[in-house]
Amino acid sequence: MTRKEQLIDDIEKLLNSYSGITSTHISPALLEFMDEDTLINIIDSLLTQKENLLESNIEWLEKFKKQE
Length: 68
Known about the structure:
Layout: H1 3-16, H2 28-31, H3 36-67
Helix pairs in contact: 1-3
């Protein structure tokens, strides 16, 4: 597997890691025109979104715990 194929696979895995989302399959041909830096930026963006979502959930949980 090439580095580019691995990055595309990583993007697909990140997209599929969201609960409640149907399975996503990305055709490598769809992202083939992108360079490695662009693919890495997509991965970084997805990771940041997941982190922000997790932080938001933790904040909500903390507020909920304080109301008890």
